[in-house]
Amino acid sequence: MLFGFFGRVSSAPHMRDALDASSQRVKAIAQRVSGATLQDRSGFALPDGTTTAGDAVNLEAEMTSLADEQLRYEATAKLLEKTYAKLRLSIRDR
Predict the structure, then answer these.
(1) Which domain holds residue 30?
(2) Does residue 34 form part of some domain?
(3) Do 12 and 87 contact (CB within 8 A), yes or no?
(4) What is the pTM of this model?
(5) 32-75 per-position pLDDT tens digit
(6) How many domains does the chain have?
(7) Which residues contact 80 (CB under 8 A, 6 or more apart)?
(8) More confident residue, 64 or 92
(9) Is 2 a member of any domain?
(10) Which of 2, 5, 19, 50 places its Cα 20 to 30 Å from the Cα of 93?
Protein backbone atom coordinates (compact mmCIF):
# COMPACT_ATOMS: atom_id res chain seq x y z
CA MET A 1 0.00 0.00 0.00
CA LEU A 2 2.58 2.62 1.08
CA PHE A 3 5.54 0.79 -0.42
CA GLY A 4 8.10 3.38 -1.55
CA PHE A 5 5.98 6.27 -0.31
CA PHE A 6 8.45 7.57 2.25
CA GLY A 7 11.30 7.58 -0.25
CA ARG A 8 9.34 9.73 -2.67
CA VAL A 9 8.05 12.34 -0.24
CA SER A 10 10.87 12.57 2.31
CA SER A 11 14.51 11.85 2.91
CA ALA A 12 13.73 9.32 5.67
CA PRO A 13 15.27 6.29 3.89
CA HIS A 14 18.50 8.19 3.23
CA MET A 15 18.72 9.28 6.88
CA ARG A 16 18.01 5.74 8.04
CA ASP A 17 20.82 4.48 5.80
CA ALA A 18 23.09 7.20 7.21
CA LEU A 19 22.33 5.99 10.75
CA ASP A 20 23.23 2.43 9.76
CA ALA A 21 26.49 3.59 8.19
CA SER A 22 27.28 5.70 11.24
CA SER A 23 26.78 2.77 13.60
CA GLN A 24 29.12 0.68 11.44
CA ARG A 25 31.76 3.42 11.61
CA VAL A 26 31.41 3.57 15.41
CA LYS A 27 31.91 -0.20 15.60
CA ALA A 28 35.04 0.06 13.43
CA ILE A 29 36.49 2.84 15.58
CA ALA A 30 35.71 0.91 18.76
CA GLN A 31 37.39 -2.16 17.30
CA ARG A 32 40.56 -0.18 16.51
CA VAL A 33 40.61 1.38 19.99
CA SER A 34 40.06 -1.93 21.73
CA GLY A 35 42.74 -3.57 19.59
CA ALA A 36 45.18 -0.81 20.43
CA THR A 37 44.61 -1.20 24.16
CA LEU A 38 44.66 -5.00 24.11
CA GLN A 39 47.76 -6.26 25.90
CA ASP A 40 48.29 -10.02 25.98
CA ARG A 41 44.58 -10.60 25.38
CA SER A 42 43.61 -9.12 28.73
CA GLY A 43 41.00 -6.72 27.40
CA PHE A 44 41.21 -2.98 27.97
CA ALA A 45 44.49 -3.00 29.87
CA LEU A 46 46.75 -0.02 30.37
CA PRO A 47 49.46 0.02 27.73
CA ASP A 48 52.97 -0.54 29.05
CA GLY A 49 54.61 1.45 26.27
CA THR A 50 55.61 -1.54 24.14
CA THR A 51 53.94 -1.44 20.75
CA THR A 52 54.94 -2.71 17.39
CA ALA A 53 54.84 -0.62 14.21
CA GLY A 54 51.81 -2.51 12.91
CA ASP A 55 49.82 -1.89 16.07
CA ALA A 56 50.41 1.87 16.21
CA VAL A 57 47.03 3.56 16.63
CA ASN A 58 46.60 7.21 17.51
CA LEU A 59 44.12 6.85 20.36
CA GLU A 60 43.53 10.59 20.60
CA ALA A 61 42.57 10.78 16.92
CA GLU A 62 40.37 7.70 17.22
CA MET A 63 38.55 9.08 20.25
CA THR A 64 38.07 12.39 18.44
CA SER A 65 36.63 10.49 15.49
CA LEU A 66 34.34 8.61 17.85
CA ALA A 67 33.05 11.83 19.41
CA ASP A 68 32.53 13.38 15.97
CA GLU A 69 30.64 10.33 14.76
CA GLN A 70 28.46 10.37 17.87
CA LEU A 71 27.48 13.99 17.18
CA ARG A 72 26.64 13.14 13.57
CA TYR A 73 24.58 10.15 14.67
CA GLU A 74 22.60 12.16 17.21
CA ALA A 75 21.93 14.97 14.72
CA THR A 76 20.78 12.53 12.05
CA ALA A 77 18.59 10.68 14.54
CA LYS A 78 16.96 13.97 15.58
CA LEU A 79 16.34 14.92 11.94
CA LEU A 80 14.86 11.50 11.22
CA GLU A 81 12.59 11.81 14.25
CA LYS A 82 11.32 15.18 13.00
CA THR A 83 10.82 13.81 9.49
CA TYR A 84 8.73 10.92 10.79
CA ALA A 85 6.72 13.32 12.97
CA LYS A 86 5.95 15.49 9.93
CA LEU A 87 4.95 12.45 7.89
CA ARG A 88 2.77 11.20 10.72
CA LEU A 89 1.08 14.59 11.00
CA SER A 90 0.46 14.88 7.27
CA ILE A 91 -1.01 11.36 7.08
CA ARG A 92 -3.19 11.94 10.15
CA ASP A 93 -4.59 15.21 8.72
CA ARG A 94 -5.79 13.51 5.52
Answers:
(1) 9-93
(2) yes
(3) yes
(4) 0.67
(5) 888 776 655 545 544 554 444 455 778 889 999 999 999 999 99
(6) 1
(7) 12, 15, 16, 19
(8) 64
(9) no
(10) 19
